[in-house]
Molybdate transport system regulatory protein (Aureimonas pseudogalii), 146 residues
Amino acid sequence: MTGTGDDAAGPDRDDTVASPPAAPSLVPRLRLLFDDRRIVGPGRADLLEGIRDTGSIAAAGRAMGMSYKRAWTLVEDLNATFDGPLVEMHRGGRGHGGASLTELGHEVLERYRRMQALSDAAIAGDLAALAARLGPAPKAAGEGER
């Protein structure tokens, strides 16, 4: 068959259709403050989940891209914020120690995630309406300069 029809342009023909640019997105983040002091937010909740899932402050911090010192500091702050500790440390030794959430730690994490889900659901319509009204994203400093 000769080069007629759809393949007439040859093998270099690009049949792909350009995708429309991704719609801008707004991301709500619930942070709980007490007297202007952050007590729980998405990062601290993620750290608590990581400790719950791994049994290790170091592993939880590493998974989040933070240093052990930073993870430890956040755990100390969380433990000092409430009327009891959220994370319990276990001494090293054969099992090399570890950490786990206390009953209060599980409660705080569960309540925070529930409040987060409820707030996300409550604002979803307004958030979508605002996202639809966003203009193009501003260029980062130096972008487009050569």
About this structure: Confidence is low (pLDDT under 50) at residues 3-11. The longest strand covers residues 37-40. The radius of gyration is 24 Å. The helical segments are 42-54, 57-63, 68-81, 103-132.
